[in-house]
Design goal:
The protein is α+β, with helices and mostly antiparallel strands. It has one domain: Nucleoside Triphosphate Pyrophosphohydrolase (Alpha-Beta Complex), CATH 3.90.79.10. 17% of the residues lie in helices and 42% in strands. Strands 1, 2, 3, 4, 5, 6 and 7 form a seven-stranded mixed sheet that branches. The longest helix has 13 residues. The chain is globular.
Length: 154
């Protein structure tokens, strides 16, 4: 039996997310998805997620946005990269290895498709939400990070 070797002392996950904003009467709306993998607590997140082994981050985010929202998107450029380290006791699975999340954020715009909720995935609902309402949402911090990256770019 071949032994699996760990070349690092931690686990890593590469994920890519889209910041999709459109103009509206109240100053703009952002495309969000309702994340369902945080126990009983559902929170809004940016559409996106884990990049598959054979994908580039760009391919991964386009695929994830389609799966989670029903929209086809084109990327408008890299906004930024965020890393986060989660100690073993903070992980969802029993392990003695820390976890390093690497999140890549892209600006994007819709080019096709129509709003649809993901079925049997990590999100339950997709919705355009007013930028004014974002601070009142139960949300993951990466929404704030993505919008901050977007503001710094504009």
């Amino acid at each position: 039996m071949t032994e699996l070797r760990h070349y690092t002392q931690y686990d890593t996950r590469l994920a890519a997310y889209a910041v999709v904003v459109r103009d509206s009467a109240d100053g703009g709306e952002v495309l969000l998805a309702l994340w369902n993998e945080d126990g009983d607590r559902k929170r809004w997140t940016l559409p996106g997620g884990g990049v598959e082994l054979a994908e580039t981050p760009e391919e991964g985010v386009v695929r994830e946005v389609k799966e989670e929202t029903g929209y086809d998107v084109e990327l408008d450029g890299l906004l930024g990269i965020e890393t986060d380290v989660i100690p073993p006791e903070g992980r969802r699975r029993d392990t003695d290895r820390p976890f390093k999340a690497v999140r890549v954020f892209y600006a994007a715009h819709t080019v096709g498709g129509e709003l649809a909720d993901e079925v049997d995935g990590t999100t339950d609902e997709a919705r355009w939400i007013s930028l004014i309402d974002v601070p009142t949402l139960s949300r993951v911090s990466m929404i704030d990070t993505g919008l901050r990256f977007r503001s710094a770019r504009n």
